[in-house]
Amino acid sequence: MQENIIIAGHHAHAQVSTSWQQQLSHAIRDPDTLCQRLGLDAQWLPGAQAGHRLFDICVPDAYLARIKPNDPNDPLLRQVLPIGDETLASPGYVTDPLEEADHRPVKGLIHKYANRVLLIASPACAINCRYCFRRHFPYSENSPSRAQWQEALDYLRADTSIHEAILSGGDPLAASDRQLAWLVEQLESIPHLKRLRIHTRLPVVIPDRVDEGLLSWLGSTRLQKVVVLHINHANEIDQAVVDACTRLKQAGVTLLNQSVLLRDINDNVPTLAALSERLFEAGVLPYYLHVLDPVQGAAHFDVPDKEAQALIQALLEHLPGFLMPRLVREVPGKMSKTPL
Ligand code: SF4
User: Fold this and answer.
1) Cβ–ligand 1 contact at 300 (below 6 Å)
2) 58, 133, 171, 330: residue to mutate for ligand 1 pocket, most atoms within 8 A of CB
3) Which of 4, 15, 289, 319 could form a cystine bridge with 61, CB 3.0-4.6 A?
4) For ligand 1, atom 7: residue with the closest CA
5) Where is the Radical SAM core domain (predicted)?
């Protein structure tokens, strides 16, 4: 077992000097390797294989290095290791919990809320989170080519009430800087657009993603920039993540975080308090704490509303107001998130 620890640590370290693209292409994508690298008992393998068949495993080394080997309860491992429960059908858990299919006026664009639209900038993610509400999203039908982007851009140009473009995915930062620089150039030429918001987990999963290529287009746009990270546990924030956040801030980005409340991962007061504290140390403000979207295969992560509300009440005694995330749920058809 000791050997595994050294191999895992050494390998992760060796990867750090490579580009983010190489790190992504070397990500672990099968249950055997994941279990082996972390020295997990063979009893976890059948569940991992069953879940993997429904939604692929993807774990880059830079993230793996933050997982404690030999610990099936590690809060980062629980986010990426498929278990047999994913195959269970649960009443009310569906493939498109937010009913986004109803809000796609043109390919690659979701217009749900007033004044802002969401663009699916990349179908890929750098990590596959088991609780993801888009685990069944038909990305192949929604990743436009450059020509098809024109249709989405025309939609934005024509609607002067839209002030904010939100790049989403998958993970929008999984797209190349060339593509992103082109897209942002198109967006900033639309006079009524004021803000560019990017929802991403990549700076957390592979901190080297925040490289010069990214900072050059992000740092130079006239649009106000907000990056909403997705971090669920303080252990996800190592020094490399802090450094990536610092680089984003130096480029003029406002940094926020949203988390998902997850059973056995962050469903207690000390863990949530530590997350907020650690986020602030990294220069990030807690923004939302989402209750789980009822996506098929993720019911075992659910924390009931009453318990979630009690947790937030208790958390108030441990944190200053500006470090309190807002507990929300996304309700299909509603014009905004619903506070709980
Ligand atoms: S990074 Fe975000 S979109 Fe991708 S799998 Fe994780 S939660 Fe889902």
Assistant:
1) no
2) 171
3) 15
4) 132
5) 111-334
- Per the model's pLDDT, the better-predicted residue between 238 and 142 turns out to be 238
pLDDT-derived band of residue 332, with 50, 70 and 90 as boundaries?
Answer: confident
> Looking at the predicted structure, is the pLDDT value of residue 1 above 50?
no
Q: Which fold has domain 100-339?
A: TIM Barrel (3.20.20)
Query: pLDDT confidence of 79, banded at 50, 70, 90?
Result: very high
**Predicted local confidence at residue 5, as pLDDT:** 36
Report yes or no on whether pTM surpasses 0.85. Answer: yes
Q: Is 174 in the pocket of ligand 1 (CB under 6 A)?
A: no
HEC-encoded secondary structure of the chain: CHHHHHHHHHHHHHHHCCCHHHHHHCCECCHHHHHHHCCCCHHHHHHHHHHHHHCCCCECHHHHCCCCCCCCCCCCHHHHCCCHHHHCCCCCCECCCCCHHHHCCCCCEECCCCCEEEEEEECCCCCCCCCCCCCCCCHHHCCCCHHHHHHHHHHHHHCCCCCEEEEEECCHHHCCHHHHHHHHHHHHCCCCCCEEEEEECHHHHCHHHCCHHHHHHHHHCCCEEEEEEECCCHHHCCHHHHHHHHHHHHCCEEEEEEEECCCCCCCCHHHHHHHHHHHHHCCCEEEEEECCCCECCCHHHCCCHHHHHHHHHHHCCCCCHHHCCEEEECCCCCCCCEEC
Ligand-binding annotation for 35, yes or no, is: no
**Whether the CB of 125 sits within 6 Å of ligand 1:** yes
Question: 127 CB under 6 A from ligand 1?
Answer: yes
For ligand 1, the distance from its centroid to the CA atom of residue 200, given in whole angstroms, is: 8
Confidence of residue 227 (pLDDT cuts 50, 70, 90): very high
- The per-residue pLDDT for range 41-78, each reduced to its tens digit, is 999 999 999 999 999 999 999 999 999 999 999 999 99
Select the more confidently predicted residue: 95 or 250.
250
